[in-house]
Amino acid sequence: MSKAKHVSETPATQFLRKHGVAFTEHSYDYVDHGGTAESSRQLGVDEHAVVKTLIMEDEAAKPLVVLMHGDREVSTKNLARQIGVKKIVPCKPEAAQRHSGYQVGGTSPFGTRKAMPVYVEASVLELPGIFINGGRRGYLVGIDPRELARVLGVVPVAVGTPPTR
Q: What pTM was estimated for this model as a whole?
């Protein structure tokens, strides 16, 4: 496991501290399009426990956050059906950045610029611990997944599918 170097505060870490969430810091060398496979490999952790933060929108262009296991994809069709909207699509990078306040690849669900509903794959909440973006590329925080429900008011969904890669 790489030695965690301290990363300066981000809106995400400020949010976690403000809400009394205990977290560990995990830095890695960010690789463009490396995703959770790359971060989990560098940190020596199971990709299933690395949670990606995805900014999506419904047919009315209302943004929402989806938290998914790193080794799973989101079925947007199932998500739309479960939350009662016509369709869900991933936001374009510029829109995602505008909604979240974070650079794509460094998006955290904590301390987003806009308040958005947060949906989480239900099985994420059953893990003993997760690694999730801390608000900067190459920086994950380790937390107890139950804290997601406490500080974000997440809505559990079952929309994960095996990856197509």
A: 0.94
